Amino acid sequence: MEGNDIEELWAMWDLWLPVTQELSFQKFIEQSDLLEELKYDFNEKAELRHTETQRPFVFNYYKNVLERNSKRYQALGHLLAQYIYELLEKVCKLQKVYIPPEADKEPRSFFFMSERALTSHHSVLLVLLQDHGVFRAGQWSQQAIIHHGLQHGSQIPCIQMALQAHYDVIVLNPNDNFVDLKMEKEWKELLTQNIGSSSLKMVQAENFFSLQQPLQCIPKRCSNTPEEHMAYIWDYFISKTEGKDVAFIVHGYGGLVFMDLLVRRKWEVMNKVYAVALIDSEHHVGHQLGSDVQLLAWIKHHCREWVTSPKPLDKPAATVLKKEFPIVSAGTEKHNLAPSSSLQSIFKYFKRALKAKTTINFSRVPIVTRSSTKRKQSA
């Protein structure tokens, strides 16, 4: 995909934006019992605005009552996660895949992937791995979605660019690690459709906002942690793809998770992944990779990082602490805006890296040298 193509796709954001009543966020809220507290929808610029005042989201809805305002913000975040899941399926045409597949009678996590991600050959597979936090699949930052819009906080522009460039896509869900039974019960009551009594809705909402019960968390098998989630999807999905070149975009803690995968699945990752775009990453090469010469050589040639910086986009921004591979500015000083700010540059990097990709494969077989040959002959 050429630079101009990326810019055109970025400018055409509003063409895919679900402004129809069927996919509007407001209709999503109307199905819950929180319509009065959350009168918000996304406008034609994909910005979250109050449906009556057209003003941005206001946290202090209940005047100076922190706990109730935090509960309201939590409810908004939960609804946003469900809404973006729907956009991934209905707008981006991705498939929702539960893991582990056989565990249909216990709490389990899931991720999203394009229809031919595991079957089509000789195409690029792009894997998206976000930072740690409350946000789920399809989100770079919940805060950025709320305050800056879907085009900055969601992964949908990135997914659209990838699909437009004929990439296949896997969207990970690394923060979906457990289910809280008490909160699940509250969500189900709040999201019940077609409740006739408005007074009942008000009572249910009040109960939710005043909820002070202890958590009852059950871990999700194969997804207890972001690292376990990543390793499982690598082992049972990504590693099974044939004839594919794999690229990663990782943000924040996602960089640490990727380096963990690289250490655990060293030879597989080095042979299959051709490029990694790290964004303001929390990895630590010294602690995670140690002095492994092969791993250090691999990241030097296959990784590039975009970091928050006052410098213009793509200007060198290496520091004394980080110099293992090329590091450039993300074009912003805000961590939660770094993915959207650097996105066009990342896709250009992927194109160059794929074009320059060598055919050399890493192998466990040691390289034969003259000295080793002499030792073998004299034995």
TrEMBL record:
Pfam families hit by this protein: Arb2 (PF22749)
GO biological process: regulatory ncRNA-mediated heterochromatin formation
Arb2 domain mapped to chain residues: 34-313
Single GO MF annotation: siRNA binding
Any one GO CC term of the record: nucleus
Matches recorded under InterPro entries: Arb2 (IPR048263), Arb2_dom (IPR053858)
Protein's recorded name: Arb2 domain-containing protein
Organism: Leptonychotes weddellii (Weddell seal)
Gene: LOC102727781
